[in-house]
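Putative vacuolar protein sorting-associated protein TDA6
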Amino acid sequence: MDIHEKEALVELEKGESPGPVPSQERWMLWTDTGLAILYKIILSIAALLFLGHNFFCTARPKLVTTQVDGVPQFVLDYGISLIPSPWTWLTTPAPLTYLDTAEAYFPSDISAQITYTHPAINGTSMHEDEDDLPTLNTTNLHILNKYGDNGTNIYLTSNTDVTSSPSWLTGVVPNSTSGKTSHAISCAIIIYPKPSLSVTDVFYFYFYAYNQGNTVLGRELGDHIGDWEHNMIRFQDGVPQAMWFSQHSNGQAFTYPSLEKLNSGPGKGKRPINYSARGSHANYATTGKHDHTIPDLNLPNGFIIDYTSKGTLWDPVLNAYFYNYNGSTNTFEGINGAPEGAMHFRGHWGDEQYPVGDPRQPEPFFGFVKYVSGPTGPQDKYLGRGNVCPGNGIPCFIRDRLGP
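Predicted structure tokens:
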């Protein structure tokens, strides 16, 4: 029975008076009628208790479709996000992400990264050279593009020494019930429709304040402040076709049917599963060990290993910004007031690589260093790609089964 339907209670039967009767018979009639009425009242109470028990203990959540102005409905139909209320499930567009069981650096608030850093060029703070520079935030960050070679030489540099492990680097652990990063918007969802091809690419960008590099022969290499990773799902006429998983300098693509999906509850069989690697946050379609020495070939053993597992579950879209992207003008349009400045910023979301000799930088290891430069943002991640894979010159293979 649907929990929103009301089941009519059985009405009490009304007896007609048979006219005057002897007192003994009146007593018997009253007794029989009274017992019948009492019996039916008991049955009615039992029925109410039974219905209440079913409602509160066995009812299944009801699907509720989310409508976001400017977001195609088919995007919203391919996911179910867990929320605390046991009576409501909210449809959302993004993959679910499992963080590794040993993860130490969790998703972070995009705006907080701007608060804990300052813009610098060649190691010199811009606040020292530009007196008219306002307080920066996600709305106006793009004003930095008029400096430092159209912004490309600007680094959002930590206000404190990162080797002291300031708390803001660890991010926010997603809520164990909802999967939400409370008070932290850690995801930017970018929708790029291509009407002439009946194709829509939907990017899910994930932000972390810190990237912990891989350990090679006992040396940790490739750490950096700020970390943007992403998935992309390509839709054809509103139907998902394939999904991209970003991994370091490249990544992997899989057909949508081949992906692991949410396997229970509402949304079963629709919402794809993404695994974020420990520390590096590279995205994979499976758990286990992933060697990424050779791009697009993730063998279980090798020289440079990522680790993924079903640790903390993160639902990125519960706290996310939504954008429409125009490939002709390379511009973003914020949906429901999403700030556009952060998306248009062309600079780096972390410190510039510390030079050899800097007390924070350990001695190089065969030419590799521990601290490298922070990454650029979503606008620099091949949003206008023709294939599911980025147009970076590496051959694109779209796998139809899970594996290396």
